[in-house]
Amino acid sequence: MPGAINLYKRPDLKNARLIMAWPDAGHVGLRVVDYLKNKLEAEKLGRIEPYDFSLVPWISVKNGLIESLELMKNEFYYWKDARGERDLVILRSEQPTVRPYEYVSLVLDVACQFGVKRIYMVGSFGATGITHAEEPMVLGVVNQARLRGFLESQHVSLYPEYKGIGNLHSSFLWFARDRDIEAISLWSPMPHYIARLPFPWSNYPKCSLAILGKLATMEGIEADIKELEISARQTDTEMGKIYNELYEQAKKELVYQNVEPLPTYTEDASEPISDEGLRRMMRDIEDFFKRGNQ
Prior knowledge:
Elements: E1 5-7, E2 17-21, H1 28-39, E3 43-48, E4 58-62, E5 65-70, E6 74-79, E7 88-93, H2 100-113, E8 118-123, E9 126-127, E10 139-142, H3 146-153, E11 157-158, H4 168-178, E12 182-187, E13 190-191, H5 192-195, H6 205-219, H7 226-252, H8 275-292
Parallel strand pairs: 2-7, 2-8, 8-12, 9-13, 10-11
Antiparallel strand pairs: 1-3, 3-6, 4-5, 6-7, 10-12
Helix pairs in contact: 1-6, 2-4, 6-7, 7-8
């Protein structure tokens, strides 16, 4: 697709890795890439022109007049390691709503242009059998057998078994192998009773912190994680009572229907939620409970 890739710069990157995320439960993946690009002060690199990949635009209407329309938001960033060891390319993107395989191919084209030999995809999903009282785990899926030992050495659990519908992670795992690019999909499952709430009610930075910790160790990334640690503790403290009530309600199967809300896209998921924002979320969830029990 001529002209589909719009690069603003062509930096000379060394031993580059590509880290990618799309909207998911609790914005876990987006928070990871946002935190990295902000802390490392990554620079804009380019984007994929969105016109062929989006049927669901973002629009703004005021007083009956449409003021703006934006198709699939996406942006590549890059960071050069001052030590000269390992540079990063970061992709923050909405999911394409049409022609996903061409989208995957274009992203891999960018990876190849900058000599990327390993890509990481990060995200989360709602899972039963875990609660907010536990420390989040990190699960991994790889596209080459030799990477299984690497994940195990990093104390990342291999995803045991799955057969069913795949997603963008699956496509990148499969098609990256055709280009001799290592691909690792990292997931930190979050409690299903939290994941089923729309963002920002499903705010759960603990999973982002778990994935970021693994990435930092795997790739020797030196990024200050104190702010994310504070955000995780703050959410645990402020939302603890609500999370407990969510858990009890979920066990009784009174609140939730069998439908997962579609993840939404925010401009910067790394921005901490203010105290007032958390209090407002708690009030909203309490109102939600009251409506559900009427």
